[in-house]
């Protein structure tokens, strides 16, 4: 499509239709419980008339507002800048320099996909909030792809290497077996139980639901009742986790495009296309939550510069390169992404002193025994029931806390491997981060009173990428400082005293 570079373009006019359908759907969903609630006071016919009138009026207002937005919004791609003009009373015109653009991401919610539309998000990779991004919502899919290719078009400046271009990995449906092992499953199970109670309250039937559940378990012992309810919530959570996984990762593909751009495409109902320039890539993070780690699996995240706070809040998986897969496969993809013969996260790590284990065992004991002691004191003063609860908590949670503390100690490690420094920590969420040594901009050394008595310290590599800080916790004091000195020579030396 050849057009003058300075031509202004409009968003797709079907944005008004999208707004009408979405607003009407939301309002109808909200109007149903309202109509049911007021029908007993003013009559069913009057309730339907008033709620229908409110739905129509609010939908028309929303459509009119979006029509004005569409009429007043235009954009253009010039030779040097991308500009967006919008607003009626308060006119805004923002622009981004094309050479600073680092990402063009496409998202299509189900209704947009049905109409062949996408939302285009253009970012510079700077931590400047909305000032570093432009959002075109919506344009046609063909226009979105044209903008993505045009704005990310670079000379072949990607790092040299023998690793393949094109598709690096695609969806394998066998990966879905890891979905129930995530922490999402129990949360969805609890949410399902809460949703049943909330919907029944809206319909004015919560009392009948509770009475039905009471009649169902009238002759069942309390312990079995609790177990059945927990099992039902667990099954609901597993089904929800499987459905969420399918929605997020269907049609997943990870590709390396010419010019050094990694592209992740995924999504069943809402399609997403995320592009990451390899020039922004500062490393990778291997994430192993406890449940999937027990199954020998891990997730792969990119450590990139320019992930704004808005990205972190609105796009929780914005930097995820690979869903939960077998650990060996994650290592292989990590090596391909970094163009290395072997992944740095597989490098042998230096263990931490036993004093670090004592600290974690101490934290675990305090976390369990302090509440148990409070319950015991209250039980002695008030009721013996609290004494039994304290005993049960001690019996159940004390061994669990000790096991987690020992696992957290075994997870600790650090190393310098080639062009990367590696840190590992965590038990409920174990993270192994391989950070490019050239991306380290400073070191933060922390040593508490108790660490100083044990000869330990925590040393943090600060960077403009990822979370901004990657820490080796409770290292031996001399080993930790030596690790920092070896990883980035010359950065820490002015502050060290050699004996």
UniProtKB/TrEMBL annotation:
Keywords: Membrane, Transmembrane, Transmembrane helix
Transmembrane segments: 16-42, 48-68, 183-203, 223-246, 361-381, 387-406
Pfam families xrefs: bPH_2
Record's keyword annotation contains Membrane: yes
Residue span, YdbS-like PH domain: 70-143, 409-473
InterPro entries linked: TAT_signal, UCP026631, YdbS-like_PH
Cross-referenced PANTHER family: UPF0699 TRANSMEMBRANE PROTEIN YDBS, UPF0699 TRANSMEMBRANE PROTEIN YDBT
Protein name: PH domain-containing protein
